[in-house]
Design a protein that fits this description.
With about 375 residues, this protein is α+β, with helices and mostly antiparallel strands. The chain is built from eleven helices and eight strands. It has three domains: about 100 residues, Acyl-CoA dehydrogenase/oxidase, N-terminal domain (Butyryl-Coa Dehydrogenase, subunit A, domain 1, Orthogonal Bundle); about 100 residues, Butyryl-CoA Dehydrogenase, subunit A, domain 2, CATH 2.40.110.10; about 160 residues, Butyryl-CoA Dehydrogenase, subunit A, domain 3 (Up-down Bundle), CATH 1.20.140.10. Strands 1, 2, 3, 4, 5, 6, 7 and 8 form an eight-stranded mixed beta sheet that branches. Helix 6 packs parallel to helix 8, helix 6 runs antiparallel to helix 10 and helix 8 packs across helix 11. The longest helix is centred in the last third of the chain and has 33 residues.
Amino acid sequence: MPDMLTAARAVTDVVEREAAASEAAGTLTAAVVNALHEARLFRLMTPKELGGEEADLTTVLAVYEEVTRADASTGWSLLANATTTGFAGAFLGDRAVKAMFGGDADPVHAGQFAPRGTSVAVDGGYEVAGRYSFGSGCAHAGWIGGGTIEVADGEPAVSERGLPVIRAFFVPAGNVELLGNWDVMGLCGTGSYDYAVTEQTVDEAYTFRLVEDEPQRGGPLYRLGVLGLTAVGHAAFALGVGKRALEELVAVVGGKQRLGATAPVRDQQLFRHDLGVHDAALRAARAFVFEVFDDAQTTLERGEEASVLQRQRLRQATTYATRVAVDTVRFAYTWAGTDALRTSVLQRCFRDMHAATQHVFVDNDTMTETGRLLLDVTAS
């Protein structure tokens, strides 16, 4: 197996060189997509038996962090594509997997799995339809998925756990209408378009229950499920953007002196103090992220199930890293002055990181739920 972190570092030159063009185009350029294919990065989370890398969680974190450091839009698109491709490989039925991953195929999947569509059981499959948003990386994907509320007899179907059944599905990209509507402040190059899936029948093998279903292939990693595997990308993204912002700031302040100041920015005690604080905070957040993901992986590899608290720690660490990265980027933007106001990498870091805060995965409820679990653990 190739060293995936080395492979990620090898693509950063083209990623950085193409970043402005990707942002202008609203989606990754062909040069970036080709580089990610050649480095096998779209296969990062795909089961080995399907020709994927099935990388461990700390490797996945490091790869996404490295690509995101080069360009946030590319990192975001990669995490969306590679994670979703991993879901397809692990959870879909054999007929679907053979069609998608057979031969020398290097498939790319995309899609939003929030249940914004409906599915109804028919002979051999499901009738699906829906309209979705934020299909990151869908412009270069061959397969696009969506989430649905499964309906039976006109009412939401209920699972064995007494919950509404959320069924995910995948269809060929040609069966999906890309609607655009990606005119945003940050993450402009991710191609996170709205898209519509008109009513069509999907073979059951191309669907799975988002919450209840167990992985059909791959190692213990996939037992974290869709939510657990999603967390790794968002955590690494925050770390990568925060790291790049501090790098850019240090470069900018090398010869910078504000009008009326008695000393260059780099020599001001307040700046030095705050730089040290933000550097420490980002490194601490990184250590926390790597600790909780490694802990979950170790538990799964022992043949045990990750506890409810362990799973929640993944969300907690992801949200915390996002908050720390936002503070870091804001600090860098402020001290860089007009260098960050104008078009620059640092300006893009500022916009991209603030765009990422709007994702539901890092909502404040993440911390609230963590607090509830901690109180329950203490009380018991």
